[in-house]
Amino acid sequence: MKFSVVKLPRLLWALALLTLPVTSFRWFPGLGESTLVRPLALYPLAVLLPLLLILAWRKKFSLTMPGAFLALGVFVLFVIFSAAMGSLINPIPLRGQVYDGRALRALVTIIIGIAFFISAVWMNKDEADLRFTVTWIFAGLCLDLAWSGLQAFTFYTKLLDKEMVTKWQLAFSMRELVRTNRISGLAFEPAWLAGQLATVFFPFLFAAILTNFRLTRHRWLEPALLTLSTLVLLATYSRGGLLITVGVTGLVTLLFGRDVLRGMWNWFIGGFRNGHIPSLLFRLSIILAFIGVIAGAAIFLGQKNFFSRMWESNADNLSEYLVDINAGARGAYSVGAMGAFSESPLTGVGLGGSGFYIYSHLPDWSFTTVPEIAKQLNPASRLYPNPKNLYVRLLAETGLIGFVLFIAFQFNILGEMLSLHTRKEDWLRFAMVAGVFAWLAIALYNFTQDSLTTPNLWVVPGILVGLAANQSHKEVS
What we know:
By secondary structure, the protein is an all-alpha fold. It has a domain at about 70-310 and about 390-475. It is built from 20 helices and no strands. Helix 2 (about 40-55) packs across helix 4 (about 100-120). The longest helix has 30 residues, at about 125-155.
């Protein structure tokens, strides 16, 4: 069989999606131990993007240039400007870290994130591309679920030795098995896995059920994957991931699933009105099953103290509550980063530079009540602090101007997604619902992390922007 180089982009894109769950791949040259975000998908992507440019130059592949690229380009230009301003400020080095090094590192992370976004835009033009993309996203999910199942088997049975499985995981990951028996899958930690589920996998699975759109003839596939993903999400014990997923699921249902809810309600009430005993018993069993699932999930999550403290805390104020639920360090880092913002509110202290200002602006309550802060302030520590909140980081490092430009870019993406709402094709409605679910989940997820490298911030938005741009181009032509 003769190999065609035109088919190579699809193979590379499939590999990138298949390896998307591996976020902290061990084997990256030139990176120190402190660099934790190491997406394995970057390897096929590094070949894919240059190949697409070469094929486009040879007129064998068309490249879409949506309006979102302009909004992103303006943001990136200002980020570069803010980095230059930070270099002029040149803060005092912190634990061997100098500003220019942190700025260069931060610029590289943005380039990596943008590479995922551009690849997703260019590789998704029509229904066939969408089906191909989502199929391989589900393939990556299956790998993630399988490894998560292996971890659960190790934690909750004695059939597999934990030390042996840890060695298996360290063969590809920067992180060993979580000692508290929380499922982390192929990601670095449980919170990262929960973030992947909420922002990449749940959007397509839930949209498939809500819109009744299926990728294969196996109509049980999406419900089965959604059920398994929900169980894994519970096993991460990630408070942020669970709250984001539940909240966004409810909101998307209200926005796009009112007809479905109305039909379900009419069917449910109809069973009580007709007076048939079997119908009554069946609906009562549904109520009992629903209550049982909610109660079982609450009991399961309540086994972990840091989770049960969310509703058992006796704190008198917000800072005490944050400390009680083990979120004191995150709150303190955000307050410290906002101190950096107060020093340069318009242009920020420069990309990557917020860590140089956090320690001097930490709140007083954090010095005596948060052990992690004491560990950070230890003179022997080599840790470099981060805001732990992308919005706070952008305010601190790029100021109000950079923050507004980033938000404008995000709403540009949302506008592209919603533009598909007027189309009547089932596959476009499926894509739109998945895109809005992902957009909302990402918007909330960014309150809990501060990295622009994370692929799940870029992939689904890129897919939707690519589809919307090509559909608009078809209308014009």
